Amino acid sequence: MMSGDGGIGAKSGVLGRYLMDHITQKAEGIGPRLPQPADPPDAGRCIYLPQFQKRRPDESAKQPSFNIQVRQSPAWGGRSWFLATLTAEMTADRSNRMVLDLDRTDPYGAPLMKIHCQRGHAQFIAAAERANALRELADAVGVELHHVDDMPLAPGLAAAECGTARMGAEPRDSVLDPNSQCWEAKGLYVTDGAGMVSQGRVGPALTIMALTARACAHALQVSPQETRPKERARERMEKAAQSRRRRAAKSAKPVDTARTRRPVKAQSE
Asked: Which of these, 182, 124, 132, 131, lies nearest to 154 by C-alpha position?
């Protein structure tokens, strides 16, 4: 598949467009000594704060939703290291796209990707409020911040890229159908995050797994009536069992020994 004027999936004009990546901002600092629990948590665990904009319900309706993951670990001098990572949804924008750079190739001769992606003006305005939320959180737990991202990180650093081959109900404005199959190439399924038309504020992994499962189920359909593979397999097993029973019944048919027994001549005295 290639974006531009030609290639599979390009007729709709949206192939390669609507590239998204999570909006991410971080805050780091030093906090007080952590309590020593009897059963320490596994390394890498965090506290997850969904929809943190609702910390002030009277203003939550004015702010786009965002989540925060908080991690604290023991540090030098009896203190703790604090890291808060904020994630929010990046609005899909047609101008954010990726195309093949036909003038530059990799060591194998394949064209490199040329990426055009930037945050929108509204996202930069919201970033200031989100940075304040990180500062409020740090103050609440007694953390002295050393660094706060007042602006969102560049697209791509969140490692949650989605879009560029969006699915839809009609081929005129989408690359994939609702089963993640390319409108222009039946049997070609795209099952990563490329088909997603929006991203949400959480990781897309589970959604991608669900879309992949649905695409696989569709690809394995074996009749126009959309009979599921398990049902077809069950029918074949039942037919095979019936055939075995018929063969067993034939082989077990009783034999008339009276007709097949050879007569025995009487011996004279």
From this structure: 124
